[in-house]
Amino acid sequence: MKQLTHLGVRCCLAAITLLFSAITLAAEPVTTGWLSNPDHPPVQVKLSLTGERDGTTANALLQVELADGWKTYWRSPGEGGIPPQLDWSDASGIEAIDWFWPKPARYTIQGIDTVGYTGSLSFPLQLQLATDATQVHLKGTLTMSSCTNICVLTDYPIDLKVDPSTLTPDADLSFAFQQAMAQVPQALPLAEVTKANWHAASTTLDLVLVRDGAWQAPELFFHSEQDDLEDVVFNNTAITVEDGELRAQIAASHWLELPELAGQSVTVTVVDGDFAAAYPVNLNAVEGPVPSPLLDGSTSLAWMLVLALLGGLILNIMPCVLPVLGLKLQGVISANGQSARVTRRQFIASAMGILVSFWLLAIGLLLLRWSGQSIGWGIQFQSPYFIGFMVLVTWLFALNLFGAFEVKLPSAMGSWAATTGDQHSYSGHFVQGMLATLLATPCTAPFLGTAVAFALAAAPGTILLMFTALGVGMALPWLAVAAWPRLARLLPKPGPWLAWVKPIFGVLMLLTMLWLISLMQSFISSTTLIITLLVLFALSLIAVWRQFGRKGVLITLSSSFLGGALLIVLLLFNLSSWAPKLPEDHQWRDLLQTNIDAEVAKGNTVFVDVTADWCITCKANKIGVLLQNPVYDALGAEQVVRVRGDWTVPVDAIDTYLKQNNTYGVPFNKVYGPNAPEGIVLPVILTDAEVLDALAQASATTSSITKE
């Protein structure tokens, strides 16, 4: 009997132990543990079921740990990146998975805006279980893109099995799930979208959001559940706030075509400090352009094409192009008396050189945009390799004009030219057109900035069409002579004076080369710059010696030294007789939007000047307006803060600022102040009256900003 009693006690203890073991095992959270890829250790992920279940809905938490300097992406990653994705096609017992996204942040690298996360983050998930599921097998692959200065796409295998009836809530995971859900923007009643318009003409969204209380530094993010909007990118957001009203203009673009969002549903996520909310809106189609300080008047494609034609035409009188135009005129004069057919073909060849150059520029900009790089008018001058190439080209052209060598065609091309009756190389005229285009790109003409800004924010087809219009506009004078060859007869007759024309244009081409070399100082040291000049000079002497012998070298050396000495004398002793001495430039602050906002909040007026060393129009604005009275004194006023962005080389902050203002080139000038917190955009070519008017309009007081 005693033995039976002991046996019963042991059996009870064993049963209790088994029971508690089963309870303990059931209470263990269902989790993958931390997963990492040995080839990509900076990122770890963990998927866990919280144990909470509401009917057929089970909560889960995807935790991500990113090493310092690494980021991953939001559901709509911006201009680059891939959002995290969970492929659960091999799972069983699951009908759907709802993925919730915490509020994101915007990151800008080299002018490219992306949206995502850094550090530690958690994505709440909800698994919709099958009604009759007795066993759930969550099997699939989590694919996550993470980036620093490189991007890595990593797969993490997910394999979890669970009986839904055994799920038991885990306190820590449940708390972490609720914390993560609190970071997911919801449609809060504290704010609402009062206007959501779609302007198809300018592919722009026009939004107004109002909230209880004042906006501080809001940011907007956009996404859509519709598959046909998957590749639409929303960028170049221009936001202005006034107390509780937020106005935003957002450019929408598609890599292949013009987006059409009329009647589409888009979710607007607004993040302002701790405030985060998401509002689904239906976009209303509105005829006509969105109001913009940049694009005054109609932004229809037809009107933009007209502006592109005018802008291209005006490029012909820019100083950079004059040496090439002079070279062309000299060629026409020297060929006086040739047949109308030959003249027509020569000018058509030059026009085709211009058009092909603009097409190449458009294709290059499209390739840069598709690769995620910043784009803009004249950005090739931010590359020392391009500048070096242009130095070489202008140097060779100058030597050719001085007669140091002649460009000879291959025999096949020479025979073709002879049989077509052309006395000169058609390819030479084609190259002249290309060179004129390349030298024109650092200049910005009236109408050109508006047309380029419209083009670079549009679809690829529109970009090609707009750049074709620019090319046709620049080629109009050449095409006019091709259409009416008799126009060439209006030029002076050739004579002995023509022998001096080539050297004059050679000097102009050398000056262009020296200007290009001066741009290299932003990329190489002064010593390297001097060595480059000496090497080019030595090579020039060798070319002259081979063509003209010792006498030619002596003439070149003496002319160079005499010309250099004369230039130094003029600069040292007679500079004041040529032009009034320019005053010392003001002190300028670096361009940062936060600094602008802070100064305006203090009641100051802020003058922004975005410039570049290679921008001829920028230099003209500086010397002709900014360093001359009355503008110089107005900018020196106590309540005026001067901010300058130097775009000679790519700078992320300047790229972002230009994109936010829907512009793609320099010069760009804008005035902010208490009466114009959103800023007043100035024309490309400045005048005293326009600058002073903008300063007076933006400032809180006009007592020290007066016009003369």
From TrEMBL:
UniProt keyword annotations, A-Z: Cytochrome c-type biogenesis, Membrane, Signal, Transmembrane, Transmembrane helix
Pfam families: DsbD_N, DsbD_TM, Thioredoxin_7
Extent of the signal sequence: 1-26
Gene3D superfamilies attached to this UniProt entry: Glutaredoxin
Membrane topology: Multi-pass membrane protein
A GO BP annotation: cell redox homeostasis
Domain Cytochrome C biogenesis protein transmembrane: 303-518
Positions of transmembrane segments: 301-326, 347-370, 385-405, 435-457, 463-485, 497-517, 523-545, 552-573
SUPFAM superfamilies: Thioredoxin-like (SSF52833)
GO CC, alphabetical: membrane
Nucleotide-binding is among the record's keywords: no
GO molecular function: protein-disulfide reductase activity
Subcellular location: Membrane
Thiol:disulfide interchange protein DsbD N-terminal domain sequence ranges: 54-157
Protein name: Thiol:disulfide interchange protein
Lineage of source species: Bacteria, Pseudomonadati, Pseudomonadota, Gammaproteobacteria, Alteromonadales
